[in-house]
Design goal:
homodimer; alpha+beta; globular; 112 residues; 3-stranded antiparallel β-sheet; DNA-binding
DNA sequence: TGCAAATATGAATAGATGTTCATATAATAT
DNA sequence: ATATTATATGAACATCTATTCATATTTGCA
């Protein structure tokens, strides 16, 4: 890892982006669901703004705002179809960060 | 991954903790240095507050404040020796989060 | 053209957060 | 005891951020 000020700032942006409850809910919403019907580990989940808003219980406006940030931060990508816009996770890094953070949190629970 | 509100909030706290330039500098400061003298991948780096402050160019007070948060968030641990307190990374999760975030940032650079 | 559905946007605001400054605490040595 | 070194702490402040509200934009359809 070659670290300089620029990289530090980019990493800050990336982690700050992930460090928000609403955005995490959106990301989990787009993560592979644990339903047993799909056995494909690389199954792509696509959801439109309104569906996400309904599922996580937030306003359309808030979800739209946050999706913009998540898109700018390369966490999600968008695909337009008619009036709807389908969002999905962009790459594996996002899943990995969520996975490791999840493990870290679980481990912390044992020591409380 | 079993996700509920509590887990989401804990993940938020963890990622928010990592998402700050000063704290990232502290963590990198405590990460294995790339000097070729140590070939042990699990080499533990310990540094006291003042050394960290000097190395990253921040005040002692700021570093102390941030170390407290990093400790509360299980990112670092502390060992007292005389008047000095030596800090080090607590577990592998921190390193992994930094590594993946670093990769994500590097990948993003290609598309600018 | 006009209407409805889906999403985006901008301003406003309350609350959170990083940093500084001054000071307190703790341990060591003279 | 006193001084010194190392670290922690609390208050204050300026900046940033998440959320809401109202409104704009875009697309599809009657």
């Amino acid at each position: 890892m070659y670290i300089n000020e620029h990289v530090i700032n980019k990493m800050q942006d990336t982690l700050k982006l992930a460090g928000d409850a609403t955005r995490l809910k959106i990301l989990f919403c787009l993560l592979d669901e644990l339903d047993t019907s799909s056995s494909d580990p690389h199954h792509l989940i696509e959801k439109c703004v309104n569906d996400i808003a309904l599922q996580i219980g937030c306003s359309q406006s808030l979800v739209s705002h946050q999706l913009k940030d998540l898109k700018d931060g390369d966490f999600v990508k968008a695909r337009k179809e008619g009036t709807k816009i389908y969002y999905s996770l962009k790459d594996e890094h996002v899943k990995q960060i969520m996975q490791i953070t999840y493990e870290h949190v679980l481990e912390g629970e044992h020591h409380d």
